[in-house]
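Memo to structure team: turn this sequence into structure tokens by end of day. - J.P.
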Amino acid sequence: MISTKKLRGTGVAIVTPFHKDGSINFKCLEKLITHLIDGKVEYLVPLGTTGESVTLSTDEKMAILDFVVDTVDGRIPVILGLGGNNTNEILKGLEKYDLSGVSAILSVSPYYNKPTQKGIYQHYKVISSESPLPVILYNVPSRTGSNISAETTISLANEFENIIGIKEASGDFEQIMNIIHNTPESFLTISGDDLLTLPMIASGADGVISVVANAFPKEFSEMTRLALKGQTEKARMIHYRLSSIIPMLFSEGSPSGIKAVLSIKEICEDYLRLPLVPVSKAHQNKLQAAIDAIYETA
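Reply from structure team:
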């Protein structure tokens, strides 16, 4: 099992680049991976929400995972996004995917069907018992429609050795601090909100799985490392350089915002799959101005 120390820092929820016709653009995906590794991020997370996983077929997901693992070639860990609201389908996914180059899975809490805390606990208990890899929980109530309570997370963390962390995007600092304080020392509490990464680390969190780091891996991963080292003033300077653009990445949908930025930076083209659409021209202009401001203050 991977040491959780290797997952302290910045993971990136990577986008899935597409061609205009909607097919996967593997050339741009390779370019993005190189950009991220050169930017010194700690690990990559393909096939999450930012990767538009819900619009990908199983065959496409398997092809993307294989390509990411082959391209990374062991240089940094790869964490597979594998979650959903059908527990049995997740178990089938664990059997179908080639997990030989994967270090852990990130599994979002069941969405839409709104299980009780008992249902969420049983869902992850089954995944933990069947998974050949460590499991990272993912709590994002704004998308799933339900919250993994601190009590449920703490129970899972203390009862199942291969549940090694949680990506917390509830924005509830009382809940987050409760988790940090009452889980094993090796258990990872990971920010799921770029803008809250610095204060979460100040509270004892272990890093972030980031969206903005797709475009600014060097800057954001350095901020995270500085914060983890207790060099708060230096980390704060980078935080405020990037803070104005982060909300803009989500105001017209995600990953629409980050794909627009990646297009401006000529890393990948600005194509999405319906029902997602590109940001408006007016918003693209605002993003361009924000990017210019980031480099002006470097």
